[in-house]
C-alpha cells in the first residue's frame, strides 16, 4: 500500500506548493513578522537557550527575521545543511552568517560545519513542513531529512513545524517512517499537539 500513500502525499504536496506560489508579497511579509512573534514567545515559554531552525525559502513562512533576532538575543541557533547521504549537518548562526544555495537550492549557512549529532543538544527544533494534521503528523517535502533526524535522536526535545494557517489540516497521509511533531507555529498562533514528545 505504500504506493497509494506516496501518491496521496505527492498530490497534496503539489497542491500546497502551488498555493504557496501565489501568496502575495504583503502576505509573506506579514507572515514573517507573525512567525517571528510566535517563535519568540515559544522560545521564552520553553526557556530554550539552544535551538535549531531552518532558513525559509521565498515561498515558506519566513524564519530569517526570527533567526537574526534570536542570535542577537544570545540564543544559540543551529541551521541545517543537507548532505548527499540524507543526513543533516549543522552550523551555528552568527550575525555574520553567510547564506548560500545548498544541495536542493535551499538557503543554507556557509560556516563551520558540525556533524548530525550536534542537534542532540538543542532545547527546541523548528522545522519546515508542507502541512501538519491535528494528530501532530507532519507532511514534509519528500526528502526525509527531518524524519531521519527526529527518528535518530536519543531524547527528542519539543519539535514545532512552521506552516501557514491554511496548512493545519484534519489529516495528512502517513507512512511508517513519518515522525510526529509537538506542535505547529503559524503566522497567527502556536498550537501544541498531543504527540509522543509532548
TrEMBL record:
Catalytic reactions on record: (6S)-5-formyl-5,6,7,8-tetrahydrofolate + ATP = (6R)-5,10-methenyltetrahydrofolate + ADP + phosphate
GO molecular function, one term: 5-formyltetrahydrofolate cyclo-ligase activity
Alphabetized UniProt keyword annotations: ATP-binding, Ligase, Magnesium, Metal-binding, Nucleotide-binding
Top class in the EC scheme: ligase
Record's keyword annotation contains Nucleotide-binding: yes
Entry EC no(s): 6.3.3.2
Cofactor(s) needed for function: Mg(2+)
UniProt-listed Pfam families: 5-FTHF_cyc-lig (PF01812)
Family under the similarity heading: Belongs to the 5-formyltetrahydrofolate cyclo-ligase family.
Name this polypeptide is given: 5-formyltetrahydrofolate cyclo-ligase
Amino acid at each position: 500500500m505504500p504506493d497509494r500513500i506516496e501518491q496521496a502525499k505527492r498530490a497534496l504536496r503539489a497542491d500546497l506548493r502551488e498555493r504557496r506560489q501565489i501568496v502575495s508579497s504583503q502576505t509573506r511579509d506579514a507572515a514573517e513578522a507573525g512567525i517571528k512573534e510566535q517563535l519568540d514567545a515559544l522560545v521564552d515559554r520553553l526557556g530554550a537557550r539552544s535551538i535549531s531552525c531552518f532558513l525559509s525559502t521565498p515561498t515558506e513562512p519566513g524564519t530569517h527575521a526570527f533567526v537574526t533576532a534570536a542570535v542577537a538575543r544570545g540564543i544559540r541557533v543551529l541551521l541545517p545543511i543537507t548532505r548527499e547521504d540524507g543526513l543533516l549537518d549543522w552550523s551555528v548562526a552568527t550575525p555574520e552568517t553567510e547564506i548560500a544555495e545548498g544541495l536542493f537550492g535551499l538557503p543554507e549557512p556557509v560556516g563551520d560545519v558540525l556533524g548530525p549529532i550536534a542537534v542532540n543538544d538543542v532545547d527546541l527544533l523548528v522545522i519546515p513542513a508542507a502541512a501538519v494534521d491535528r494528530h501532530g503528523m507532519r507532511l514534509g517535502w519528500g526528502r526525509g531529512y527531518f524524519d531521519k533526524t527526529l527518528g535518530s535522536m536519543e531524547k527528542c526535545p519539543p519539535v514545532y513545524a512552521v506552516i501557514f494557517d491554511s496548512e493545519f489540516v484534519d489529516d495528512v497521509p502517513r507512512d511508517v517512517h513519518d515522525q510526529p511533531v509537538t506542535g505547529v507555529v503559524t503566522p497567527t498562533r502556536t498550537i501544541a499537539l498531543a504527540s509522543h514528545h509532548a
